[in-house]
Each structure stands twice: as C-alpha cells, then as structure tokens.
Design a protein that fits this description.
The complex is a heterodimer of chains A (about 260) and B (about 230). With about 260 residues, chain A is of the alpha/beta class. Chain A has helices at about 15-30, 45-50, 60-65, 70-75, 100-110, 125-135, 145-160, 175-180, 185-195, 205-215, 225-235, and strands at about 5-10, 35-40, 75, 85, 115-120, 135-140, 170-175, 195-205. Chain B is α/β, with parallel strands linked by helices. Classes of the chains: A alpha/beta (about 260), B alpha/beta (about 230). Bound molecules: adenosine-5'-diphosphate and magnesium ion.
C-alpha cells in the first residue's frame, strides 16, 4: 500500500512543482513505483517540467467526471516505467474538484504505487483543501525569504489541523552568499521558526531551470549539486539518514551533520 | 475603627462588630420581601449614628443583581449606614465557571503559527513559540516559554496590571489592556527573559528583565489581588 505525500507551500512560485517532479524522479531512480498528481487545475505545469505535455490524452477532471477510467488518464514517463503522471486540466472548470473526489482517486491509486506525490496549487483555498484531502504526509516547500517562511508557517498551522503526520520541510533556492551576509534567512533560523523536521535543502541553481526547460528534471542528472540534493531527499523519504550537504562551493563534501535529519 | 464588639440578634438578622467593621448576617431561608422589611425596620430603629460602614452577608442565599441593589437601597435610605459590600456564600454555576476561567492558568503545548489567533480566558502559558503573524489574546497574563515573535495581548478585557513574560522577546507588537507598543522599524535582535508591563507613571508599555518582575508585580499570581 503506497503512501500519499502532498507538496505544498502557501506561496506561489517557491518550487512546489519543481520539487514534486524531482523527488518523483529521484524515487523512481531508486526503483520505487511513483505516481505524480497535478492538482493545480487551470495552471498545469508538472507535465511540462517532466517533458510529458505531448502525451496527455485525458486529465484529472476527465476522471472525476467519469469521462474516462483512471488508468487511461495516467501518462507514463519517458525515462522510467515506474513513474506515472495524472495531469491537471488546463481548461476545465476547477469547481468540479472536491476533497472527496481527490481522496477517492488517491485511494484508488495507493495499492498500485509505493509513493503518490500530490502537487498542490498556491493559496489556502479550495485547491489547497483538495490537494491535502487524500494525503498521509505533507512536505512544505519554502525559500529563505521572510514572506515565503511566513506563508509556510501559515500552511503548517493549517496542516496541523488535518489528520496528517507532522509535515517535513524543504528549503529551496538557497543562496549561500546571501545567507552569509544576512540578506536572507539562514537554514537554522527557518527550521527553528517553523519547528518542523528538515527534509532537505536545494540551492538556487541554473541547472534546475535549464533541466526543467528541457523537460528533464535535474534529479535525473548523475552528478550536479541540485540533483544530489534531490536524491538525498528521496533517500531520507525512504528512511535513510543522510547528512546535509555543505554549501561551501569548493569543499563540496558533506560536513554538516544535523540531528534533525531523516524521515522515520 | 473604634466600634464596640457586640452581637445583636433578631429572628432574621444578626449584627456583629468585628475588626473589619459591622457585619450584618441575613437569614437565608425567609422570603426576600420579609428580609427587606426586617432589614429596613431594624436599621431604622438602630442606635448607630453617623456614617458607619457595614458589610452585608447573605449567607447561603443566592442574590440577583437587582436584589443586591434593593438591599443596598433599603439600608442606605433608612439609616445613615453605608453598605461597604454585600457578600454571599453562593455563586451561580455560570459565575463559578467564569471565576475558574479567570483564575486558572491555561497551558498550550504548541507553536502558535502565522495567521492563528489564540484567545484565552485567564492566564495563558504558551509552551512553544508565538511566530511572526500569530496572535495570542488573554484576559489575564501571558507567559511564553519560547520565543515571542508575533503579537501578545495581555489584559485583553481591561487589565492594566497584567504582564507579558517571554523567554525570548522579539515581538511584532505587545498589547496590554488598551495600550499598544510595536517593534521599531529597524531590525532588532530580541532579548532573553524579559517581561512587558504598563508603567503607571508613564502610562506606557515598558520592558524589564525578568528578575524585576517580583518587584514590579508582587501580586502577579495572587488571584485575590486581581479583584475577582
Ligand atoms: N532550486 C532552484 N533553483 C533555481 N530555480 C528554481 C529552483 N526551484 C524552482 N526554480 C524556478 O522557480 C520557478 C517556480 O518554480 P515552481 O516549481 O513552478 O514553483 P511552484 O510550483 O511553487 O509555483 C520556476 O521557474 C523554477 O524553474
Ligand atoms: Mg506549481
């Protein structure tokens, strides 16, 4: 029986979709059966980052409204047999989607997968409620900016009211020099404010943008820094204890071991 | 006060001179009308002159507000006595709950997060942080065993004596009763183990080191002193 994890943030543009695509890819690299669900109805992105846009025939609304079977709407990844995508609708009316509808879908998928990753839309309204409905766990994505951390805090407060395990945190788009100069919140500040477990950090990296542009999530690359960050996150999700990577450009070795790490 | 120790009894009321003044114990079984009449005629005939203060004790009779008012009127109109207070052994269920609410410390083991508003009757003990954008309102004091970075409003009803105490103080705002103070516009490091209170001289909210709390609010945990 698979585990459903919602990836959420409150604020838009912090990297939910990028994180979903890359964690999904990294888990698939470890031979896990993974299904990605895009619940950002009307702003479909996940398929683009995965380079699967052209293969979409049906979408999540078609399934919910009974126009097709769930299996028919799943898009197979071009790199991995074990990675599937249930795309969002780009045009349909999102009022068709209800929390119960999503939960039913997720429950139907669970027996066939190890992980179901749900990409959540921005905001705290209906779209968020739908995305969270089917989840067992949550990953909150934030950037090291105050506004983003404020929204993450808000979302964590809302998640605490759901029937979920305590959420885990991914800090995305870290810029070492700005943290050092105090122009961005640093990792310790963020973790201490949000008081949730840190699942991993991703640096702000052109590789991420470039890879997404070409429809090949960066986690697929064997040796870039961002890719290693995502792979480490996936290993932590699988229960391994992996130390945080050092951000020092020249050392590049893992130095900073944090007691907070590891998803149990 | 130089009044003689004396006890005067009639069927419905007993007067006692004590160190606190004269206490009039009222029968709690007769009808209220009988009681009022008796009280009226008794104080009128009484020899006590000039304005002496009396405490009325209604024993086990529950009194509505209007009944308290009538007792006060009868006494003060029929004699030169002044009613200092009206006491009773009984509280309504509702009053008891309110009293309990106002006089107990309510613990919360949680991080109060951005957008959340926690409203507490009585004192609030927060075992966790109050994050930026979060608000805690308490009719009593607020004690934060964690970092106060959001808004804390003590004395939410009108308690100017109430305080906000925090292990780490770096709030967006502190409010006590109807006073508000906010963090300065420049970025600031917080400070450890401080409390905020209204300084009666300046009328402003001020911060002090926690070891001065005993000096500034000696009756902090004494519920009787809160006028309950
Ligand atoms: N670690 C990163 N480094 C550089 N750019 C990133 C990173 N993560 C995300 N981005 C970019 O940020 C933008 C928003 O990311 P996206 O995943 O679409 O956010 P969301 O789904 O939260 O709205 C995209 O253009 C993406 O390429
Ligand atoms: Mg998105």
């Amino acid at each position: 029986m698979g585990e459903a994890i919602v990836i959420t943030s409150g604020k838009g543009g912090v990297g939910k979709t990028t994180t979903t695509a890359n964690i999904g890819t990294a888990l698939a690299l470890q031979d896990k059966k993974v299904c990605l669900i895009d619940t950002d109805i009307g702003l479909r992105n996940l398929d683009v980052i995965l380079g699967l846009e052209n293969r979409i025939i049906f979408d999540i609304i078609d399934v919910i409204e009974g126009r097709c079977k769930l299996q028919a709407a799943l898009v197979k990844d071009k790199r991995f047999d074990c990675l599937h995508l249930l795309p969002a609708a780009q045009s349909s009316d999102k009022n068709e989607v209800t929390p119960e509808g999503i939960k039913e879908l997720v429950d139907e998928l669970k027996p066939d997968y190890d992980y179901i990753l749900i990409d959540c839309p921005a905001g705290i309204e209906q779209g968020y409620k739908n995305a969270v409905a089917g989840a067992d766990k949550a990953i909150v994505v934030t950037t090291p900016e105050k506004s983003s951390v404020r929204d993450a805090d808000r979302i964590i407060g809302l998640l605490e009211q759901e029937d979920l395990e305590p959420p885990h945190l991914v800090i995305n788009r870290i810029r070492k020099h700005m943290m050092d100069s105090g122009d961005m919140l640093d990792v310790d500040d963020i973790v201490s404010t949000l008081s949730v477990e840190l699942l991993g950090v991703i640096m702000d990296d052109e590789d991420v943008i470039r890879a997404s542009h070409h429809g090949n999530p960066v986690a697929f690359q064997p040796d870039t820094k961002a890719s290693i960050c995502y792979r480490n996150i996936s290993r932590r999700i699988l229960g391994e204890s992996v130390p945080l990577m050092s951000f020092d450009e020249d050392k590049g070795i893992m130095v900073k071991v944090k007691k907070l790490l590891g998803m149990k | 006060m130089g009044c003689p120790k004396m006890t005067e009894t009639n069927l419905y009321l007993t007067m006692k001179g004590t160190n606190e003044g004269i206490i009039v114990y009222l029968d709690d079984q007769c009808s209220f009308i009988t009681l009022l009449n008796e009280l009226g005629s008794q104080v009128k005939s009484d020899t006590i002159e000039n304005t002496t203060e009396v405490i009325i004790n209604c024993q086990n009779r529950y009194l509505q507000d209007w009944q308290r008012e009538e007792i006060r009127q009868v006494v003060e109109e029929q004699s030169s006595l002044k009613v200092k207070s009206i006491e009773s052994n009984v509280l309504s269920h509702e009053e008891a709950l309110t009293w309990f609410d106002q006089s107990t410390i309510k613990p919360f083991v949680k991080t109060v997060r951005s957008g959340q508003v926690l409203h507490v009757e009585g004192d609030a003990l927060i075992l966790g942080d109050i994050n930026p954008g979060a608000t805690v309102n308490a009719t009593g004091n607020i004690f934060v065993l964690g970092q106060l970075k959001g808004i804390a409003h003590a004395g939410y009803a009108e308690g100017t004596e109430h305080v906000v105490v925090a292990s780490y103080m770096n709030p967006n705002q502190i409010r006590i009763a109807n006073k508000i103070s906010r963090a300065p516009d420049y970025e600031m490091q917080g400070s450890s183990r401080e409390f905020a209170y209204i300084n009666q001289e300046t009328g402003q909210i001020e911060l002090e080191q926690i070891h001065n709390l005993q000096k500034i609010r000696p009756n902090l945990t004494d519920i009787v002193e809160r006028g309950l």
